[in-house]
Amino acid sequence: MASETLKSVKHWQAHSGAAEGFARLDGEAFPTFEKGWVWLVGAGPGAPGLMSLLCYHAMQNCDVVVYDALVNPDILRWLRTGAELEYAGKRGGKPSPIQRDISLRLIELARAGKRVLRLKGGDPFMFGRGGEESQSLAKAKIPFRIVPGITSGVGGLAYAGIPATHRDTNHSVIFLTGHDATGKMPVNVNWKAIALASPVIVMYMAVKNLAEIATALMAGGRAVDDPVSIISNASMPDQNVCETTLAEAGAFVLMHKPPTPAIVVVGHASDWRPLLDWYAPALRANRIG
Ligand code: SAH
């Protein structure tokens, strides 16, 4: 039985063209990118190797790509020759009056009969406004597809040697955003409940309001010496990880100004980092990884 399985794997390799590499993606195995469609695609946290094959397929078949600031430009090298590029960048913290314009632009391009690739950092439905954009498309009766990506709140942790879950530290994990639509700490979050609900809290867009957030978590009963890791530019060659504690996090951020984008991890998942920190500077030279 085992040898039969091995044989069939060999057979598949011989006929798939896999040995000839990424460029020979078998188009037939993937959904057709139809004209007039919008694909909302997550590109992953940064390292090009972390994007999905469907993302690559979309880049090879789209007419236009509308991409965000958080999409690593290195990824765009795989765009089909002749595809148009439109930048729809906006960066954290600030209100985004252009969000409606982006949705309208997607609708306009789709109505013009284009195959529209809406490329976003991480996963489109994780704090990425993919929900709002797909709602607008649905209301406008534009057909769309969502292609999930590796979210920075999971992939970024992996690149920092921090397991999002580990049986010895946490059976649950909370994802939250550190700012609301106006850039302030979200007030409609029950910070006391968050503080007590999960041993590990993963926060997006949280650097600016970290002092306030840490205070709210400690007021909610979280230990003052809870470890805090701040992962900047996760999976990129300039990835940087800082470590502090909940009590010191506010002052730490003021003093060290960790670069953004950054993910903040609260809890003892960071305890594994000294042992599991595999993303050594030598590995960062590889731009694809
Ligand atoms: N949809 C994205 C998140 C968009 S919100 C995702 O799934 O990852 C933007 C926030 O994501 C940033 O403020 C930061 O907190 C986080 N982020 C995105 N890419 C990151 C990266 N490479 N390193 C660290 N944080 C990142």
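^ S-adenosyl-L-homocysteine complex. Confidence is low (pLDDT under 50) at residues 1-21. The chain has two domains: 30-150, 153-281.
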